[in-house]
Write a structure and sequence with these properties.
The complex is a heterodimer of chains A (about 500) and B (about 120). By secondary structure, chain A is α/β, with parallel strands linked by helices. In chain A, about 50% of the residues lie in helices and about 15% in strands. Chain A has a 7-stranded mixed β-sheet, sandwiched between helices. In chain A, strands 5-6 form a two-stranded antiparallel sheet. Chain A has a two-stranded antiparallel sheet with strand order 9-10. In chain A, α8 packs across α10. Chain A is globular. Chain B is mainly beta and about 120 residues long. The chains are: A alpha/beta (about 500), B mainly beta (about 120). Chains A and B meet through α1, β3, α4, β5 and β13 of A and α1 of B.
Chain lengths: ~500, ~120
């Protein structure tokens, strides 16, 4: 008994005296269980390299994945000695964050100003909800610790706010890397002690290799700002990584809003439409948008000119001959932006000519069984509904010989209703030819090669040069100000 | 040693209540409406393709309401008045529906439950 107690005590105290820097790797959620691995596996392997080089200096917790054999193997093989909490679930996430908070709160604190906390989160990410400070990321769809647990399927990162504030209060350096889609809002967690790096802006996906690149860039002796800039240079795909340093925020606030429409595209992901460009082109007053866009585009071009100027400087060569050094070539960016703007403008001009003000108008659909006034359906809903498919399924269901009389009756009533709805839809398409025009434009956008992710990622790649030029210039201007990203040395 | 450390974390962790439909009442739920040939009916699928996939039968009376939302990411406000059988249940009534953004996070296999009002089960 005493022997057991001494063993437990020695383990506990040995845990306590280990380095109290913390490295937490979380994510890998939202992926189909039928896949052996996740699309976040490379970033996990790269994070493992940092772990192996620094395992003596960091207490490492891996809370990644849930139910993917290949990913589990990566964890088992590469994170020996780390604390593994299988299943990136809301419960596990909260337990880890609460543990860190408790360590910061304790008296004396179990993590003090000489130590660091680094969180690396890579999962699918959603746009922020209204009143949300950060955003949600996808949890694993199964809980491997307990198969009967049915937790939340997404995790609200707003809970990191308390950790960030406490870390600042205690003088502890905190680094948060959120490599997920729409992660830009997580920058709000930044403060004088907390550096935040995100995989993209708040309005865009992060379909890039940024998560892999930033994990690979984590090297002992480097600071988070250096790791970020190194990773950003290697980014391929659609996304706009961001950082919470002053220079980062100023650069992002300058460039991001103006570049935003040209980083939208139409695509598909696992059968689901990625239609930010559709929503952008259709959801606002096309006439008003055209005007606003032209002004914004002029502003963007001026910024591009300025980016070239701030990056160029004169130097004296031999015999006093002046030369311009450090010049960046943003001509490809200008060219791509002009081309994509024209494509979008062409669609906007056509949309502007379509009167879609009647989309919210309602039609009263009634039959002998569904009286007037009970089923008022908007034109928008009528157009979006695939009545042909519904009618086909109803007719098939009616062929089932095991149907009861009452169910047969119900199905017949519904069939008549949907057939009437289809008739009304057909009548609308004749009476309002603009609806067919709208449908035609939507179809064209889906197939237009000039609105694909390839175009958007081409612009993002060229825009990186402008970003870097601004970032470096603003870094020089803000060199006297606190920079928690520079202060966080790995 | 790893087992002990794991145990240490589990005992010290605070477990938050999951908002899965354990009882009857009014819920807001994210998922997708699909047709089930087996049931010859529309169903609401939550956590699609996951180990915690839920399937709720939709009443014929609500089919007119759901028609524009079929096969789209949707959030529903529903009344559940019968206890579930494992991961299968039935919507007593759909009060409201809204589209949710087509987003990798809100794909067919991603959802959540939110209890609006607890009620007594009828069965």
């Amino acid at each position: 008994m005493i022997k057991s107690f001494l063993i437990i005590l020695s383990i506990f105290t040995s845990v306590k005296v280990q380095a109290e820097n913390h490295f937490v790797v979380m994510g890998g959620g939202g992926e189909p269980l039928s896949n052996p691995g996740t699309q976040f596996d490379t970033s996990l392997e790269n994070a493992a390299d940092f772990y192996k080089d620094n395992s003596e200096n960091y207490t490492t917790i891996i809370n990644f994945n849930g139910g993917h054999i290949k990913t589990d193997k990566i964890i088992d093989t590469n994170f020996k000695g780390a604390v593994i909490k299988p299943g990136f679930s809301a419960e596990n996430y909260k337990a880890i964050v609460n543990e860190l908070i408790e360590k910061l709160k304790s008296d004396p604190p179990l993590i003090d100003r000489n130590q660091k906390i680094l969180l690396f989160i890579n999962s699918h990410g959603a746009e922020a909800k209204k009143d949300q400070q950060t955003h949600n990321v996808s949890a694993s769809s199964s809980e491997l610790v307990d198969m009967s647990e049915k937790g939340l399927n997404s995790i609200d990162l707003d809970s990191l706010s308390e950790l960030s504030k406490l870390a600042e209060l205690r003088g502890v350096k905190l680094g948060i890397i959120d490599a997920s889609c729409h992660s830009g809002n997580s920058l709000s967690l930044g403060n004088s002690k907390t550096c935040v790096i995100t995989g993209s802006g708040p309005n865009h996906f992060a379909f890039t290799n940024f998560g892999d690149a930033i994990a690979a860039a984590l090297k002992k002796g480097k600071n988070l700002e250096e790791a970020y800039l190194e990773a950003r240079k290697k980014v391929e795909g659609e996304g706009f990584p961001m950082i919470s340093s002053i220079a980062g925020q100023q650069t992002q606030q300058t460039l991001y809003p103006l570049l935003t429409p040209y980083m939208y595209f139409h695509g598909e992901y696992r059968g689901m439409p990625l239609d930010k460009i559709d929503k952008y082109l259709f959801n606002v007053d096309a006439g008003e948008l055209i005007c606003k866009r032209d002004k914004q585009f002029i502003a963007l071009q001026k910024l591009i000119d300025l980016a070239e100027k701030v990056n160029a400087f004169e130097s004296k060569g031999f015999f006093g001959f002046k030369k311009i050094e450090g010049k960046i070539d943003l001509a490809p960016l200008r060219e791509k932006l002009l081309s994509y703007k024209k494509t979008q403008d062409d669609y906007l001009t056509r949309i502007k000519e379509i009167d879609l003000s009647t989309l919210d108008k309602k039609e009263d659909i009634f039959t002998d069984y569904y009286p007037r006034g009970e089923n008022l359906t908007s034109h928008k809903d009528l157009l979006i509904t695939d009545y042909e498919k519904i009618i086909k399924l109803k007719k098939e269901a009616l062929l089932d010989p095991s149907l009861t009389a009452s169910k047969t009756e119900e199905l017949k009533k519904l069939l008549i209703f949907f057939e009437r709805s289809q008739e009304i839809k057909s009548e609308l398409l004749v009476k309002y030819p603009q609806y067919a025009q709208r449908a035609k434009i939507l179809e064209e956008i889906k197939k237009d090669e000039k609105i694909t992710s390839k175009i958007a990622s081409g612009i993002t790649k060229e825009a990186h040069k402008a970003y870097t030029a601004y970032y470096e210039a603003l870094s020089r201007e803000n060199s006297e100000n606190a920079n928690p990203c520079k202060d966080f040395v790995l | 040693m790893r087992l002990f450390i794991l145990g240490f974390y589990f005992f010290s962790a605070t477990l938050f209540a999951a908002t899965n439909p354990e009882g009857c009442g009014q819920y807001d739920i994210n998922g997708v409406i699909e047709y089930s040939k087996a049931e010859s009916s529309y169903i609401f699928v939550v956590n699609k393709d996951s180990l915690s996939e839920y399937r709720f039968l939709i009443n014929l009376q609500d089919e007119i309401k759901i028609a524009p939302y079929i096969e789209r990411s949707t959030k529903v406000r529903v009344s559940i008045s019968e206890k579930m059988e494992g991961y299968s249940g039935k919507f007593f009534k759909i009060e409201a529906l809204e589209y949710t953004a087509a987003d990798p996070l809100l794909l067919k296999n991603s959802s959540n439950f939110s209890l609006v009002k607890k009620e007594k089960c009828k069965k």
